[in-house]
Design goal:
The protein is mostly helical. Helix content is 67%, strand content 0%. The termini are far apart. Keywords: Cell membrane, Cytoplasm, Endosome, Golgi apparatus, Lipid transport, Lipid-binding, Membrane, Nucleus, Transport.
Length: 209
Amino acid sequence: AAVGAFSLREVLDAFRGCVTERREVLLEPYLSGWWGLIRFLQSLGAVFGFISKDAVAKVQIMERHRRGEQGQHYESLQSMVEFELSRGPGELRGRPDSGCRTVLRLHRVLLWLQLFLEGLRTGHRDSRTSAICTDSYNASLAKHHPWVVRKAATLAFCALPSRDAFLEVMNVGPPEQAVDMLGEAIPYIQSVYGITQELFAQHSLLDLP
């Protein structure tokens, strides 16, 4: 795969390395998995421009936290939540660039991508990717987007390439190989999603403005 091209293997390796034995989600591999997913979004063309631009901005905020002077608190999602909560709820709600708020936005997109990839994996050769994508979107991100964005997104999905073209974008060989690797990668993404969901629910962070 060319530099900057999407590779499903890279996403698989990153998400596989995300979760420790203590079920902590490490931010370094999480963010590197995200760069892979962003390349996936970008490979789909302008259709996902608005989502990929936003994801890039969010990943960059998280990288600044990781590299900042409080970086040691941003080792894992768990340490980040603990650290940001210790600064008081006002601080958390008042800061648009808090780690918790930023990860929550990425977390919502991750659910959509996870559902979409799963739909591609289980679909048939002639399954309509626009339908798979719309269903995944309606079950995840749509409820966080205003009507105008939802309308634009659903229209854009109509222009998506065929399922085979998608599987080719994965850069892992023929379609059946891509399907196998999706089967391997998706459980790791689901695991990271599930742990994050649980952590955020436990601390009532799922509806941070």
